[in-house]
Write a structure and sequence with these properties.
With 396 residues, the protein is α+β, with helices and mostly antiparallel strands. 37% of the residues lie in helices and 32% in strands. It starts with a strand and ends with a helix.
Length: 396
């Protein structure tokens, strides 16, 4: 059995121990110690990393009554070893985990809305609430949680029996049997938890909710605490400052400016689509007039510069609507697009022609005998056109 120092001394940064087992985990060396301050993944909180002697601890795993330390280099059983926790990582986890207790308790106390699950990610953390909450209630709970943070209340650890726990006002029912480790935030929250926590709420710094969305009948709240909140603020600051410079507006004018930009973009796309459709008709007439006629069918293969896949399709469709035609239109912008089409009554199989092009020049696509589209072709567009012209039965 490994003595777990983090249970009673979560602020312990270094310790001395003895190697009791040297094993393997997924092909990597792993050590078991008689005692450890390294926290293994559990209860929504990620594992600790750091060093054992000269070896790096890359993963810490809870393995029943022992803790496995997956290391970069193994040690021998009986070796005395000095452990060093990656404190920046550990303290970040302590801030997020204690912040979660405070925030969950705020939702529970103010709104009678229980936290169903908690997850701590690399950049943000989330809690899933049992019921949906309004934006105003989200912020009410955030304000209350930060009041508790700034009052710098003590956070204490104690161990109780199941019988004692049954008489205590725990925020939620414990999910394990046997003695329980309780985390108490003075006059605000009492919860069973095996994670690491700060000694006073002031060490959390600040709790900031960055988003809330409907999730499985309730609400998923995304939040950051302490150092993560500072990094998030800096990222938001840089994003807003860059947007303000680009749009030449004040920060509070940014939402309206973005809405105007989106509306202008939507209108511009409509205008471009209309003009492109009109232009496609003119291009189709020009190409049909210039194309050779073989056995009563206009057979045209050409390269069109500056047109997207939708434009190429519009040109090909317009050409086949103007008379008996079999056409292949090739774009020039990477990834190269190709459209093959035929008029009703023409025996050319547009999809078969496209598949031959894809087989030779790569890419993917498909369609019907009347119309087929592909993209991702590689090579010289003029060479692709030459092959397409041959496949359509036109003159070389």
């Amino acid at each position: 059995m490994t003595e777990r120092i983090y249970y009673t001394e979560p602020s312990c940064r270094s310790f001395d121990a003895v190697v009791t087992e040297a094993v393997e985990h997924d092909g990597a060396p792993a050590l078991v110690l008689d005692r450890t301050a390294f926290y293994p993944t559990s209860g929504g909180q990620p594992f600790d990393t750091g060093r054992l002697g000269t070896a790096n601890v890359v993963v810490t795993i809870d393995d029943a009554e022992r803790v496995l330390h997956v290391v970069s280099a193994s040690l021998s059983v009986g070796d005395a070893v000095h452990g060093e926790i990656d404190w920046a990582r550990r303290f970040d986890h302590m801030q997020q985990h204690t912040g979660q207790h405070v925030l969950s308790a705020a939702y529970d106390r103010l709104l009678d809305n229980r936290t169903m699950s908690f997850h701590m990610g690399v950049e943000t953390s989330t809690i899933d609430l049992a019921r949906e909450v309004s934006s105003a209630d989200v912020e009410r709970a955030v304000d209350e949680a930060n009041r508790i943070v700034w009052e710098d209340r003590p956070v204490t650890i104690r161990f109780v029996s199941p019988e004692e726990a049954a008489r205590l006002p725990l925020r939620k029912e414990p999910v394990r049997d046997g003695p329980l480790r309780l985390i108490e935030i003075a006059d605000f929250d009492l919860s069973a938890c095996g994670g690491t926590h700060v000694a006073r709420t002031g060490e959390i710094g600040v709790i900031a909710v960055t988003g809330a969305e409907k999730f499985r009948g309730g609400t998923r709240v995304t939040f950051v605490c302490g150092g993560r909140a500072l990094r998030t603020l800096r990222a938001y600051r840089d994003a807003v400052a860059g947007s303000v410079r680009s749009l030449s507006v004040l920060p509070n004018e940014l939402p309206a400016a973005i809405e105007r930009l989106q509306a202008d973009g939507k209108q511009a796309r409509k205008t471009i689509a209309r003009l492109q459709s009109e232009l496609a008709g003119h291009e189709a007439a020009r190409l049909i007039a210039a194309s050779p006629v073989v056995e009563g069918v206009h057979r045209a293969a050409c390269v069109m510069d500056g047109w997207d896949a939708a434009g190429l399709k519009a040109i090909a469709s317009a050409m086949t609507a103007k008379g008996q035609a079999a056409v292949a239109i090739i774009g020039t912008s990477a990834p190269i697009a190709a459209v093959v089409a035929r008029s009703a009554g023409v025996t050319v199989d547009a999809n078969a022609v496209l598949q031959q092009l894809l087989k030779r020049f790569g890419g993917r696509g498909g369609g019907k005998p009347e119309l087929a589209q592909g993209a991702g072709l590689t090579g010289d567009p003029q060479e692709i056109v030459s092959v397409a012209r041959e496949l359509l039965g036109g003159p070389l």
